Amino acid sequence: MKRRAFLVAGGIVGGGLALGYFFTPNRLALRAGSSPDQVWLTSWVSINPDNTVTVLVPHAEMGQGILTSLPMMLAEEMEADWSLMDIRQAPAEEIYVTDKVAQGFKMGRTDMPAPLRKLLDFSFYKASGMVNLQLTGGSTSVRFTGQGGMRGAGAAAKEMLLRAAADRWKVAKSECRAALSHVYHDAGGLSARFADLAAAAAQFKPSLNPRLKAKQDYVLCGKSVRRIDLDEKVTGAPIYAIDLSMDNMKVAAIRHAPVFGGEVVSVDPGPAKALPGVADVLQIPGAVVVTADSYWRAHKALSGLAVEFGDGGNGEFSSESMCRDFDAALDGGDFVADHELGDIAGAAAGSAEPVQAEYRVPFLSHAAMEPVNCVAWRRDGRLELWAGVQDPLGTRALAAETAAMDMEYVVVHPYQMGGSFGRKTSFGGNFIRDAVHTALRVPYPVKLVWSREEDIRHDYYRPSEVSRFEAQLDTAGKPVTWLNRYTDIGLNGDGEAALIPYAIGHQRIGRVACGAPVPLGYWRSVQHSCQGFFTESFIDELAQHAARDPLEYRLALLEKQPRHQAVLRLAAQKVGWGKSLPKNSGMGLAVVASFGSIVAQAVHVSLAGDRLRVEKVVAAVDPGEVINPAIARDQVESGIIYGLSAALFGDIAIDGGRVRQSNFTDYRMVRMDRAPSMEVYFIESGAALGGMGEVGTPPLAPALCNAIFAASGQRIRRLPLQDHLSV
To answer: Contact at 8 Å (CB) between 644 and 678?
Structure first.
């Protein structure tokens, strides 16, 4: 996000409060124009003549169930009949920015008086529009847009309908109630459909502070309501952009310069253009594209092209050279502290020999099941795109920038995604740029589909990192100091993921800047996937040196963190921690707080020689509150499998400036026959609502490696596990 935009938000709040209150629009009152066929009550809610309620969800569906969870929160407060809900993804328009995401990250969960709320809401709305923020990611949809936006919008719409009914019946609003998309006046025996009251209700302004329901009064939230998209996904309905077909459309295949930063030097299009079905051979920045009447004809023609690529000066870069650079930086680079507590040097003086360890993780690809793709068509001075993306408005801005057009002339039609995990955003929008460059060169609509090989080799990768630790223990085995320095090639933010919950009096945690010519992107759980592995592996090593049980060791250091203690105890109890196990079996634990939720995982493994089998994973999750238990459980289990694939197999290795891996043959995933049994338990502590989509991934790798140590005595500090064991 642009810092300038959020300084604007802060400036509006900081001065002219009273004057601003009167002249600042009500954010919820910003709505589309109504018609007899559709009456808009708030930005996201309209009522139709058949009494259905249309909800426009400003977030994108990529398998996480957001088109069910967010409308549940709105329908709960509105008292709408769930069977009459019409749920759609919002278009890529400024009115549907995800301003509550920006506000949640900046302000957290804070109560405030109505005047300040009005100013803040509109300020963040305008600031979000300035940066084209319509983002799904960071486990923000339910905890920020749902809690801060959808619930309030539903409650405000209900209040407007109650006022309209009270005026019609000449009774007090307090005597009316809403239920199942109707308003009732029980004393007078009166009732009306929402649709009959909608036009009158739309004359009122939505309340900024509507009364929200108490949890004990919920009729939808907290229940495992069936996902609205389940039937389409089971039957294979064409809900993805990759399924799109239109008249005269061509399909494009692409080959990029294999070395990062490389360009096309020369290409001979003749042989490819002579093949059946081929329309064009195009050169775009960094790649060659073939369009044809089918993907396989385009792909075949592309495979036979003789193309010369340059290496952009990165032909000597490799994973091995990068590791040497990392080591040199950690040995003598400039240290930037993320967090300092106490006096490390003073506390370490005269202490026993420190415990030291170093951990390494590789680059990782997102590898979503649906390869990246985009349909683009330039016609009549306009540019249209059809794509599954995590930020449709940001994608629209990226497309406009690429085409050198005003955003007014660019339209993005958002689709569901077959997975993304951070890949399909404008931050990683090379596939959008490629589609736009292709469309600018042809007169027909074109669907650009990347092969799996291109998707693996030209991703925006989870950074590779090295992290070194040093700690001194007192005579009782309790850590007195905690020194941690890690390499940073980007995306570590403020270093929050490296901070620890443990009560250790002297801490110094920070980074050493490094460089690598590798495109970086946000990967599921972002830096918690790295830092969670580092810190939870090292705390386990300290327990080993102290000759203490890893569970009891953690609990003793978490006396001031009751939520961490609670999830650890629950996971340990459910996995059977402490029970007698067969030879060559072991259990491991880890606890990671991320995205507002706290997750403990206990992993049970067995070893037959060097053959590893992950038998069971138990997760205990405290997200504060659970909106849809079935969807929440799916998300945690998905995070476990995603994290397990990365821990076992994940490795993007670079040689000669290019990625070695190419497909699921050498960038493997956990298959059904190797998947562990999984159990997920929730603790609803009443804390601020936390995230769910990201949080199941970070504890998996350290809990797994700790279990391997318990089973075999082998301490693994470098991922993936396939480099150490048969997996």
So the answer is: no
Q: What is the pLDDT of residues 149-178, one digit of tens each?
A: 999 999 999 999 999 999 999 999 999 999
Please name each of the domains of the chain with its CATH number.
3-223 (3.30.365.10), 243-312+372-449 (3.30.365.10), 334-363+461-723 (3.30.365.10)
Rounded distance, CA 152 to CA 55, Å?
A: 13
Q: What is the mean pLDDT of the chain?
A: 94
Instruction: Please compute, for residue 331, the number of CA atoms within 13 A of its CA located in the half-sphere on the CB side.
Output: 6
More confident residue, 630 or 208: 630
β-bridge partners, 589: 602
First and final CA of the chain: distance in angstroms?
A: 41
What does the chain come to in residues? 727
The helix or strand, by DSSP H or E, that contains position 122, with its residue range, turns out to be helix 114-130
pLDDT bin (cut points 50, 70, 90) of residue 500 is very high
Q: Which amino acid is at 249?
A: M
Q: Beta 677-682 vs 611-622: how paired, if at all? A: parallel
In DSSP notation, 534-590 reads HHHHHHHHHHHHTT--HHHHHHHHTTT-HHHHHHHHHHHHHHTTTS---TTEEEEEE
DSSP H or E segment with residue 169 = helix 151-169
**Beta carbons of 696 and 638 less than 8 angstroms apart:** yes
Rounded to whole angstroms, the Cα distance separating 716 from 713 reads 10
Whether 591 and 699 have beta carbons less than 8 Å apart is answered as: yes
SS3 261: coil
